[in-house]
Amino acid sequence: MVDSLKKPTFEEMRPGIKVPAKETILTPRFYTTDFEAMAKMDISPNEDELQAILEEFRADYNRHHFVRDEQFDQSWDHIDGETRQVFVEFLERSCTAEFSGFLLYKELSRKLKGKNPVLAECFELMSRDEARHAGFLNKALSDFNLQLDLGFLTKSRKYTYFQPKFIFYATYLSEKIGYWRYITIYRHLEQHPENRVYPIFRFFENWCQDENRHGDFFDAIMRAQPDTLNDWKAKLWCRFFLLSVFATMYLNDVQRSSFYASLGLDAREYDKHVIEKTNETAARVFPVMLDVERPEIYDRLEVCIKNNEKLTAIVSSNTPKPIQLLQKLPYYLSNGWQLVKLYFMQPIDVEKTHGVVR
After folding, report:
1. How does the average pLDDT of the chain come out, rounded?
2. How confident is the model over 29-79, as pLDDT tens digits?
3. Contacts by 42-48, CB closer than 8 A, 24 or more apart
4. Least confident of 72-81, 288-297, 329-338
């Protein structure tokens, strides 16, 4: 734990430019896809809805929202010690995730231009939103005397290839879970303004509406592509992405519980609420939802948390690397086993349980 009386130091590439966080299985990823397949998609089954969503994007409701005001014009040295460290980590992770969305959407808009004009413009306008978010977060980092070199990130990060339908699952859930994360923090701090330690949280209400509109776009895209939702493979993949997104968030947030404590939130209870709400939202489009009320889900995730603590301790030790690998193996296997068990838990069939007809 960082000494609460000392200001943490961060490794810098050059003065004021933070070395990006090391890429791990839990860090935000950068994506690429089959652009030709995306361009050839038939959106006619849902074109009216997509056109309506495009009109909302064009309206640009938040064009004047991301403007820093006088509340930012002060020193933030009083946010110190571990609180400062986890706060910088939060800003960096959020900025990286938003910038990842910008890169993907911008490239899609470029590759689809002239081939699928409705989708191309939607992606272009979503990239505009994500660029604003990333820029606002990066400017917030400068209040802590740091920034990310986003150009360096573009060139240095590894890109994960996903088929278009996997891009839809992942980005839909990313946008919707982003909505519930932001709105939950915003509503909590409305009731407890004494815990609003930094002005950025005042922007979360309008901000999360961008996330919500982006999620609605992917909802409409998936419903225009029957094979994305309506066969047995779709049920398996939806289950996989729900578990992946929920588990990643829970493991990350509990590891950084002191950040949520600084806002007056319990990280575990906050995540359970966000997972429950995102699961309910996803049931409007996904054919299955996870049975998130089963305590077994969180019991197994807690085992993973303990395993990760052991893995961190091994990495921090002076043990030779080959021995470290042997020491880590049981914990990696245990984590894998917990997630496999979670995946094969009986999901909830949305059509049977909620009477949803697709």
Report:
1. 92
2. 899 999 999 999 999 899 999 999 999 999 999 999 999 999 999 999 988
3. 42/224, 42/225, 43/116, 43/118, 43/119, 43/221, 43/224, 44/224, 45/223, 45/224, 45/226, 46/220, 46/221, 46/223, 46/224, 47/118, 47/224
4. 72-81
**How far apart are alpha carbons 287 and 33 in whole angstroms?**
23
Using 50, 70 and 90 to split pLDDT, how confident is the model at 1? very low
Q: How far apart are CA 132 and CA 151, in angstroms?
A: 15
Percent of the chain surpassing pLDDT 70: 97
Has residue 218 got a pLDDT over 80?
yes
Question: 60 — alpha (psi -120 to 50), left (phi > 0) or beta?
Answer: left
For the whole model, what pTM was predicted?
Answer: 0.92
Label residues 239-268 b or e (16+ Cβ within 10 Å = b).
bebbbbbbbebbbbbbbbbbbbebbebebb
